[in-house]
Design brief:
Enzyme class (chains A, B): transferase
Number of domains of chain A: 2
CATH class of the largest domain in chain A: Alpha Beta
GO molecular function, one term (chains A, B): aspartate kinase activity
Strand content of chain A: 25-35%
Structural class of chain A: alpha/beta
Order of helices and strands of chain A: EHEHHHEEEHEEEHEEHHEEEHEEHEHEEH
CATH architecture of the largest domain in chain A: 3-Layer(aba) Sandwich
CATH superfamily of the largest domain in chain A: Acetylglutamate kinase-like
Strand order of the largest sheet of chain A: 3-6-2-1-9-11-12-10
Radius of gyration of chain A: 24 Å
InterPro entries (chains A, B): AceGlu_kinase-like_sf, ACT-like_dom_sf, ACT_Aspartokinase, ACT_dom, AKii-LysC-BS, Asp/Glu/Uridylate_kinase, Asp_kin_monofn, Asp_kinase
Shape of chain A: globular
Oligomer: homodimer
Helix content of chain A: 25-40%
Largest interface: A-B, 37 and 37 residues
Family (chains A, B): Belongs to the aspartokinase family.
Largest sheet of chain A: 8 strands, mixed
CATH topology of the largest domain in chain A: Carbamate kinase
Catalytic activity (chains A, B): L-aspartate + ATP = 4-phospho-L-aspartate + ADP
Distance between the termini of chain A: 35 Å
Number of helices of chain A: 12
Chain lengths: 412, 412
């Protein structure tokens, strides 16, 4: 029998009524003949409440106890979902992480799933159970302690189960109805994508499209799990939402799949750095030691042994970055004339696997921005992505212009 | 090293502040050199909330899922208590039922503890852990499912741990400061007892003094666990509260230890029952089948083959009892002229192991009630208890009169 994994996030199980609605979706899939594994989050707000209690009790908490406390919200929804399904005459039972077992590393608070032996759940399916409701976000360490996977970890739980049970698909039910070409709040022409490649989704997820946890997309890509994002608040057909899949499964697509943005960026430039071998390592080593997430890096051509070094980081890490750089200067590790910080920038990116085979995407992008009079401050590129830093005030305009320029309002 | 068990009920861990206060009590005992096992309930109100959700989701719920959901509150307080103790530099960790493991029967919702292998916790004590914080109320079935012990089950958890670890004592911290000779709200002369025998506590507990769960007292009696009831809201000395112990450990005591009452009783009389062998079995079999908790039973002398049969039961079971008796009459199982129900009665009892060796307690009791003009409707006696049914309006008066008559305001 085919196994289907369905994951419901916190807003989708926030009340008993919503659990009921989610259970009806599960019933539809059971009626199609699937054996279903349902992964549930805690009711929206519950985990935050528990985290608050832990922080108040012990600011430098023992992560093992943090996990013991914060994992409890998922146990509640798993049991309630199983009960609701039983009320609908669907044989169901709940599973906590240690009961499956979801075997993880001992990295409490940010554990990695190592294995999910499918035998226990398969045995219950063989006995007639139709739905296994699994508490997401949690597992058990080799020492027998409860672990959690980090915030948003239930997506990862879902994908890991889909891989372990060779599921036909992993459906992620959330409060949006799919992945869009860009943020509909910024660009009214934004269009829901029917399909998107893993690599594109990874770039979009890490660029700030908060639909799926990055880790879960990586895992899905590695194990070729077909991942579907869809809304738990709408009636759904078989081809609803957005399918995140291998690029071979996408027949035809636009060169650019989507436009992403990140609002809270800062640009920092070290003016007239004394250029010598190892200087980049000295600068970015100091920033890494201070836990600054450096994103883009640009180094100008060196003239007379001096160069300008520009990088970007999140706005709220600017102070930390400035301190780290100044400290490195005081230690004599680096020399520069001035440090110029610009906290008024935003990053806009176009993403698409089509860029691999199509040339001229960067040129089209720059042309579209130039046509709107938007100055580009920094550029970086990867195989399937081009990102630019611009003045923040032009961000919405840039997103709209690029969406138009690459024809994203029309399907391929 | 000596093990001490300390149990904190829901009101004693209702907030982070109260958990802090409880942790300070634990620290005092650790400082005395004890290895401590702390049993915690869920924060007051949490379990009721979870039970409400289960009932709303599935009125005829699967007890296994009920247990999976309702056990989660204790996991939260166990983790928070462990964190709080760690903040006070006391090596502590939390244990959920399955981690210990607390092995129970599969009777979900009302499981019995079968064994608590002490090895895992002892090994951690040997490694330097000073406090094991155990989630009360829960265990694990032979099938690996989570079980709960029934409401108030954390008392039972505490006593079972005290027995398994051969603890020096089991301290039950609650919102009252001990066991009283009677309810202080009814009789202002009520006096806190320093000690009370297990047998007396059992009679008082089942008679409605809601200090300790009856099961936990039975268990303590069987394993000779010294049980102490004391307040978590007062500074405590070593001899605070009330010690529930073997009667040999009580040097001298009053003949009567306490006066108990039960307000919501009903008296039912079957008038002119056709008396024949097996008639009592026919009546009370029918009532048992209808889940009526029959308490007192009185049968008058039979005259000309007919008799009156009187029994008492909780007020809210009267309708069920009437239906059961009528149905038995319709089936022809019993014959009687009339069924008279009196829902305006209360039960008052005097309890004391001293009755075993002292005569005349019943006579003194009846005399004291007669002196106040209180008519006795039904009498039953056991080895250490005499109970009477009286009009409910005289209940407070009866309790006060008996408290005076047996000199309970003065220590032995």
């Amino acid at each position: 029998m085919s196994v289907l994994v369905m994951k419901f996030g916190g807003t989708s199980v926030a009340t008993l009524d919503r659990i009921h609605r989610a259970a009806k979706r599960v019933a539809v899939e059971v009626a199609k003949g699937h054996e279903v594994i349902v992964i549930v989050s805690a009711m929206a707000g519950k985990t935050n409440e528990l985290v608050g209690w832990v922080n108040e009790t012990s600011p430098m908490y023992d992560a093992r106890e943090y996990d013991a406390v914060t994992s409890s919200g998922e146990n509640v929804t798993a049991g309630l979902m199983a009960l609701r399904l039983q009320e609908m005459d669907i044989p169901a039972r709940s599973w906590q992480g240690w009961q499956v077992p979801v075997q993880t590393t001992s990295a409490h608070g940010a554990a990695r799933i190592e294995d999910i032996p499918p035998e226990n759940i398969r045995a219950k399916f063989a006995e007639g159970m139709k739905v296994a409701v699994v508490a997401g976000f949690q597992g058990v360490s080799p020492e027998g302690r409860i672990t959690t996977l980090g915030r948003g970890g239930s997506d990862t739980t879902a994908v890991a189960f889909a891989a372990a049970f060779d599921a036909v698909r992993c459906d992620i039910y959330t409060d949006v109805d799919g992945v869009y070409t860009t943020d509909p709040r910024i660009c009214e022409k934004a269009r829901k994508l029917d399909r998107i490649a893993f690599e594109e989704m990874l770039e979009l997820a890490s660029l700030g499209a908060k639909v799926l946890q990055t880790r879960s997309v990586e895992l899905a890509m590695r194990y070729k799990v077909k991942l579907r994002v869809l809304s738990s608040f709408e009636e759904q057909s078989d081809d609803a939402g957005t399918l995140v899949c291998d690029e071979e499964d996408i027949m035809e697509s636009n060169v650019v799949a989507g436009v992403a943005y990140s609002r809270d960026e800062a640009k920092m430039t070290l003016i007239s750095v004394a250029d010598r071998p190892g200087i980049a390592s000295a600068i970015f080593g100091a920033l890494a030691d201070a836990s600054v997430n450096v994103d883009m890096i640009v180094q100008n051509i060196s003239e007379e042994g001096r160069t300008d070094m520009t990088f970007s980081c999140p706005n709220d890490q600017v102070m930390r970055a400035e301190k780290a750089v100044e400290a490195a200067r005081e230690r004599g590790d680096i020399r520069f004339n001035d440090l110029v910080t610009d906290t008024g920038v935003a990053k806009v990116s176009v993403v698409g696997i089509g860029m691999r085979s199509h040339t001229g995407v960067a040129a089209d992008m720059f042309k579209a921005l130039a046509a709107e009079g938007i100055n580009i401050k920094v550029i970086t590129t990867s195989e399937i992505k081009i990102s630019v830093l611009i003045d923040r005030k032009y961000m919405e305009l840039a997103v709209q212009a690029l969406h138009d320029a690459f024809g994203l309002d029309k399907a391929a």
